[in-house]
Batch of 2 targets.
Target 1
Amino acid sequence: MKNALFVYNPISGGHKVPSELDYILGTFQKKGVLVQPYRLIDANNEYLVSALKSGIYDFVIASGGDGTINFVANILLDNDIKMPIGVIPSGTCNDFAKCLGINSLNESLSIILQGKTLLCDVGLINNSHYFLSTFAGGNFVDVSFNTNSELKKNFGPLAYYLKGLSEVANIKSFDLKVTADEHIIEGKFLLFLIVNGKQAAGFPNLLNDADFTDGYMDIILVKKCSNINLASIFFKVLSKESVNDKNVIILKAKKCELVSKSPIALTVDGEKSELFPAEIEFKNKLLEVFVPQGIYELNK
């Protein structure tokens, strides 16, 4: 029998996971996996690190929003714990899970039990903190913190879009210098996104050619533009089109540096951040994750 540690955020997704806990444990137990629940109640990770280092567990399962998955992944990477991580999405956007092709509880359980894993890229900010899906700054990135929890529960990512659109009239540009490999770009911008997959901020297929195993980050820069042009960009991504637009710059790089004289709201995997100015390096195939059979076949 295998052993797994199940680390879950009890309040993510409207307290969804606690109500499904017996079902989750039972599903694994029937397949010969004994799962130990670990309830995240604060940022103190001493006991969690000790458990993951104990050698008892064959793999770890993380359930919550992108911030929860980020928290567990950083513990693994900071402590050089070589262990696969399974993802059970229970947040609002679940960007990293969707980048891996995981969309639901039952789907995630099946994927973990199939046992197929890949090594995925991670971003490292200022040599101190890893991110899995998105590092973002500028307008709209803080809407997740200012959106009513009941609205998020009822409308999911759509709640963020509605909140963001309501703030269009109040947007302000900021100066930004981006050094990305051999590229240097300076100007006035409304938003930047550094992403590790096709989805970010709940927008599916934001970049059709993004790949979380190629060792490159995708950088999206939205230039200062009129509200009409900005609304056009929103319409494209809401229509599940690629973000390509004359007011959008898209780059690929292994390393980049971002500096600005302006105060900028920042998020790392959906959580508030103050990691700025930022030097970012992408680490190729550093984190082992459970993935669907199809994605495994494409990338093995």
Target 2
Amino acid sequence: MTILWWHWIVIGFALCVAELALPALVLIWLGVAALVLGLLVLLLPMPMTLQLLLWAVLSTALTFGWLRFFRRKPDDLRIGSSSEALGEIGLLVKDVEPYVPGEVLFQRPVLGSDRWACIAEAKLSAGSRVRVLAVEGSCVRVGAA
């Protein structure tokens, strides 16, 4: 059996379409490798074993290249963590006392929200500027800025 250039094109399109049903970003690279190989076989006829070898090498290279390019960097892992909010300055919109939570408004969203419930060790009145000292569950501990 001989694999012709248009077989690779059909296989490539089928794999690319299958990626829509199984979105893992792996089948797309197998499909792209098959499409590239189809064009190569059209220009340079080659034996089937070489075609299969080239497809395997291209698929592996494209997949690992994609994974390496979009690998998470250690700095990206901090996004969304509570340390991102430490030191942020906001405006107190509701009085806060030692055992009575208040509310702080930030100029830009902190951890996905611009308003946060807050607690403090000292009484702070609405309208004062506060700094985030810690994130404790679903509220932030603040102190005077």
